[in-house]
Specification:
The chain is of the alpha/beta class. It has 15 helices and 8 strands. It folds into 2 domains: about 180 residues, Rossmann fold (3-Layer(aba) Sandwich), CATH 3.40.50; about 150 residues, N-(1-d-carboxylethyl)-l-norvaline Dehydrogenase, domain 2. Helices cover about 55% and strands about 10% of the residues. An 8-stranded mixed β-sheet has the order 3-2-1-4-5-6-7-8, sandwiched between helices. Helix 4 packs parallel to helix 5. The structure holds nicotinamide-adenine-dinucleotide.
């Protein structure tokens, strides 16, 4: 089976390599022509996945229609903010039997929709699956053991996608809670920024981290359940598992953002330095708005927002956090 991937960045490239090494031909759409040319000609992707050999069964194109022509399963690995504008032009060309798998973890700041909501809104006649869990692309690309959750309503579709992905070092688990699986992946980015803020101030006490992550999990669960997720989803891989992986990873864009902010860089300086705005920033902004509408308190997220905008120092935030938040 030929499999499509939209976006051959860090995650899309790692998943393309995984599926190809499982014996399937993969065609990936890439925004950046130089990246696509390098994949086709040299079987490397130095911009997004350096030091990894790209499998010969992976080809890249800048022509979106070519990916949607004959792939029954298409994985989407774009930052959320690019999904609508990239895929809207091919909306009418996508056959209804194509299964879409969303791997993006974020909120489109312009629309306030999650990546999965954006995708299912663009393609209401297609079945869609949400893939999330502790899956740092740089580790996956190095064949380190990884287990993720795929969520959808059709067992047949989940099995189809599992067969493309599963092997000795990569496994999937099934769920029927798409929103819960997605929200775990989205919300943890907020709290990874927070952990980076504290790391950047050399506040690296394990005691503090344990408290912080526990309270973060409580807040994620409260807002997630208010948005329609099942509580138990947050206790598994796409909830607590992903929160731990992202918060503790040296590769996390979101944690890095927090570190740079703590070193005194302004938001525009952070964006310039990183070349991207990590997903957690828009998520934080959108979630505070949603929490207000749903009457859910998110004091930790609100405190992080105040630290980002300089209204609170990281040190002051921590002292009030351990005094007031932990009951
Ligand atoms: N990297 C990870 O470990 C990881 C793990 C799980 C989920 N995710 C999620 O996957 C998504 C992609 O993350 P990533 O780390 O692979 O990102 P990345 O920055 O490595 O890749 C970004 C992709 O977007 C493309 N792009 C850049 N500008 C664009 C534009 N204007 N229009 C369309 N496409 C454009 C790039 O060419 C590239 O293909 C995010 O939602 C992220 O939260 C990432």
């Amino acid at each position: 089976m030929r499999v499509g991937i939209i976006g051959l960045g860090n995650l899309g490239m790692a998943v393309a390599n995984l599926i190809a090494s499982n014996g399937h031909a993969v065609i990936g759409w890439e925004y950046n022509r130089a990246v696509a040319d390098e994949i086709n000609q040299q079987h490397t992707n130095t911009k997004f996945l350096p030091d990894i050999q790209i499998h010969s069964k992976v080809s890249a194109t800048t022509d979106l229609a070519a990916v949607f022509q004959d792939c029954p399963v298409i994985f989407v690995a774009l930052p959320s903010v690019f999904i609508k504008r990239t895929l809207q032009p091919v909306q009418a060309q996508v056959k209804p039997e194509v299964v879409l798998v969303n791997m993006a973890k974020g909120i489109d700041g312009e629309t306030g929709l999650t990546a999965f909501q954006t995708l299912t809104g663009l393609f209401p006649h297609n079945r869609a699956i949400m893939l999330s869990g502790p899956s740092i692309a740089n580790e996956l690309a190095r064949q380190m053991p990884t287990v993720v959750v795929i969520a959808g309503q059709s067992k047949t579709d989940l099995l189809l996608v599992a067969r493309l992905l599963d092997n000795d070092y990569f496994r999937t688990r099934f769920s029927d809670d798409e929103i819960g699986v997605e929200l775990g992946g989205i919300l943890k980015n907020i709290y990874a920024i927070g952990l980076g803020l504290f790391d950047g101030k050399q506040i690296t006490s394990i005691n503090f981290r344990a408290v912080y992550l526990t309270i973060a999990m409580e807040e994620i669960t409260n807002i997630g359940v208010a948005m329609g997720a099942k509580i138990e989803t947050f206790l598994y891989l796409s909830g607590i598992g992903d929160l731990l992986a992202t918060s503790l990873s040296a590769h996390s864009h979101n944690r890095r953002m927090g570190e740079l902010l703590a070193q005194g860089l302004s938001l525009p300086q952070v964006e310039k330095e990183m070349g991207v705005t990590p997903e957690g920033y828009n998520t934080l902004k959108s979630m505070l708005y949603i929490a207000e509408k749903l009457h859910v308190a998110m004091p930790l997220a609100k405190g992080l927002w105040d630290v980002i905008y300089g209204r609170y120092s990281a040190e002051k935030f921590i002292s009030s956090f351990i005094r007031d938040f932990v009951e």
